Amino acid sequence: MPVPLTVEARDLAKSFSGVPALRGATLAVSAGEVLAVMGENGAGKSTLMRILSGALKQDSGTVEWRGEAGESPNVGMVHQEAMLAPHLTVAENLFLGREPHFWLDNRTILHEASRHLEKLHLSLDSSAKVMGLTAAQKQMLELARALRGDPRLLILDEPTSSLSEAHSNEVMQIVEDCRHRGMAILYISHRFEEARRVASRVMVLRDGNTVHTGDIAALSDADLVGHMAGHVPAAGKPAEARERAARGEPLLHWKSPSIDLTLHAGEIVGLAGLMGAGRTELCESLFGVRPRGEGRLELLGCPLEARSPARSLRAGLAYLSEDRQRYGVLQGRGLRENITIARLPSKLPALFGGWLALGQERQTVTQMISRLSIRGFATQPIQTMSGGNQQKGLLARWMLTQARVFLLDEPTRGIDVNAKEEVFTLMRELASQGAAILMVSSEIPELLRMSDRLLVMRENRIVCELTPDATTREEVLQWAL
Amino acid sequence: MGALTLRGKLDRLWPYATLAGLFIALSIASPHFLTVQNLSSVTRQTAVINIIALGMTLVIISGGIDLSVGALVGFCSILGATVLAKGAGIPLSLGAAAGCGLLWGALSGTLIVVLRISPFIVTLGMMGMVRGLALVVSRGLPVVGIPQGFERVGEGNLGPLPVPLVMLAILSVAMHFLLERTKLGRYAYAMGSNPEAARYAGVPLNLCTVSIYAILGMLTGLASMIETSRLMTGQPTAGDGYELRAIAAVVIGGGSLNGGEGTVAGTLVGAFIMGLLANGANLLGVSSFWQQVLIGAVIIAAVGLDGWRKRRA
Predict the structure, then answer these.
(1) What ipTM was estimated for this complex?
(2) Where are the beta strands (DSSP E) in chain B?
């Protein structure tokens, strides 16, 4: 009689270019059991799951599979965002990468797919194109795909975050069936109620460490939040920051049916919320790279109708994207070009708006490199620099535009502690020179420390405004959940 | 601090070293190679491709491509020849050809921007349209009656130097300055490197795209007049396949079809490598059929080597 499968991970650690994502994660899950995995954004959940599914290799620590013959056991993974090929059909997506033969027999594939879907009680048309499916149907398909070939371990990464309640119930029913059939299941969720329904035990990650493992029924919601947030008191704000909190005139005002936001000169406004709460979408629509919808935006007292970054920049609004590689750095180009691209110094207003003043540019770049203590030289290709220095280069780019309002989306993402402090210092400097800063961050302690006012977003709405000195990490998290 | 590594410096010298090696090898292999007559003929032959390749460098740096330039040589050639035949004089005919190329280029750029179709498709369509219109307008016949004296544009000398070489030198310097010293040049590199990031940084992508294709069109128009002068007729079929040779010159010289990379010096070297290969093959009696094989292999070898060096670095 075979021993039932147990997956045991001990002290897993993983860093990405020097920034630790996982420090010491430990978990064990057995066949026929659902373990809920909880933690704040950036706690290391996704990294842990990717290691367990074999997509990543850990730096240290062990993963042991007991009771399983093969070295690479079958793991099914459901991603938060469905990863499907939109132009292919449901059946083709189901078998993508696992086509039974080299010669594709469409009828067999359709038939197999229908059988598989029926077994899961899913009402999906095997021949439908994935493009035309709803978000819920895509998520179901993703789940069905993860369950191909009866995996021994099923990992679900917030499978219901884009689903309505009825569809969430359907997902949870399938998870329950899988458990009965003897799969070991890891279930990541931010929803307490849901975690309590599907899982018997819970593991909480904080800053890459496993901080608690135990029966979920023995913990109250407040206990869970406590574990997730930690009992570390938020670091106090330096005195100088408190003093200049006297706010100046309003610089940006955005009023839409769901959001009313005002940013004043000299203040740093924090914006908290979970992944998918609509924080980035808000920044993008203010900057003009995403349709704004109904509403009225005023910048420095003038209405801003423009829907292009160039016009927003000219009007005095700068946006640092959370996705540095995609919307930030110019790969292959030097630090100098990356810093000055948004505001090139030119001499004569000649053909095409200008003859570059290279001397002036060199001087400006040298100044910026020393002022922001960027470790890199002017002609160094930016992709060869560390994440923190790339980020400082981008901050330099936006500072040079002399914008009055800065939307900083995850300004400290993926950079080390020292670089973070330097970025914070720069932000304070900007604010004290009369700029208004909207700081989006998934790290609540950072927000508590840096912001003069703290807004919390949930489901595309600002749900509350908190005073950082008078609130706690737990309270912020509770509003966000 | 702040300099490139020695290996990085050596890597950059690769194309130049190849050109120099080829030059030396041909000097040894053929007694007819290192003569004023032969070298001046090489520069005349390659000047047309070279000038088009200058514009192509700009387009490829910005992440685009233009397949219509070969056809445009034919169209501008019959226009310029017609203007000459009517007795309008050399400056006016050069202006007409350049202006006509500029308009076609601007049209390509505008279509790319407005229809949001990939440059490959737009210029593939333009290639057919421009060549077809050239044939329609000329009824498929060469335009004759170009007054004597115009042959100096392609065949004459300015002091000791062939006129096309002088034109190429001036245009190369201008293109180098455009890339290194103007906003448009800087924006072209930024667009090619990461168009989304460039947009977020406020780069006027649409205006830049139209300008860039217009500049290539203008240079193609000028180059077509050198071709016309060498043929002393306006040929609707002139420039067949030049688009591929111009693209090849850019990529042999280190330009990347993914955009963001390329230099004027590299492109010139790329074009001259191809020119010397063709010339050397002629001198050594290699058949023109084998020349095509050889040049094709050189393109793959050059780009493959470049990719290998970058992966290794």
Answers:
(1) 0.83
(2) 157-158, 161-162
Euclidean distance between CA atoms A471 and B2, whole angstroms: 47
B172 in Cβ contact with B54 (< 8 Å): yes
Residues 78-137 of B with CB under 8 A from A: none
Domain positions in chain B are 35-239
The 10 Å Cβ neighbour count of residue B27 is 12
Give the pLDDT confidence of A425-441 residue by residue, as tens digits. Answer: 889 988 988 899 999 98
Parts of chain A with a pLDDT under 70: 1-4, 17-18, 41, 68-72, 81-82, 99-102, 104, 162, 231-246, 306, 347-353, 414, 417
Q: Does B197 touch chain A (CB under 8 A)?
A: yes
Given an 8 Å threshold on Cβ–Cβ distance, is B201 in contact with A326? no
Tell me the shortest Cα–Cα distance from B216 to chain A, in angstroms: 15
Which contiguous run of DSSP H or E holds residue B136? helix B119-138
CA-based nearest distance B183→chain A, Å = 6
Query: If DSSP states are collapsed to H, E and C, what string results for A89-138?
Result: EHHHHHHCCCCCCCCCCHHHHHHHHHHHHHHCCCCCCCCCEHHHCCHHHH
Phi, then psi, of A102 in degrees rounded to 5 = -65, -45
Kind and range of the H or E element at A210? strand A209-215
DSSP-derived secondary structure letter, A219? -
The token pair at A250 is: 């309003």
pLDDT tens-place string over residues A144-160: 888 887 788 899 988 87
Q: Do B196 and A309 touch (CB under 8 A)?
A: no
Is the alpha carbon torsion for B267, B272, B277, B282 positive or negative?
A: positive
| Amino acid B11: pLDDT | 67
Place of tokens 């330039």: B69
> Among residues 166-185 of chain B, which lie with CB inside 8 Å of chain A?
180-184
- Locate the DSSP E strands across A410-467: 436-440, 453-458, 461-466
DSSP 8-state class, residue A244: T
**Chain B contact probe: residue of A333, A355, A369, A398 with most B CBs at under 10 A:** A333
- Cβ-contact A39, A45 below 8 angstroms: yes
pLDDT above 90 (res B310): no
CB contact under 8 A, A289 and B211: no
pLDDT, tens only, A171-193: 888 889 888 888 889 998 877 88
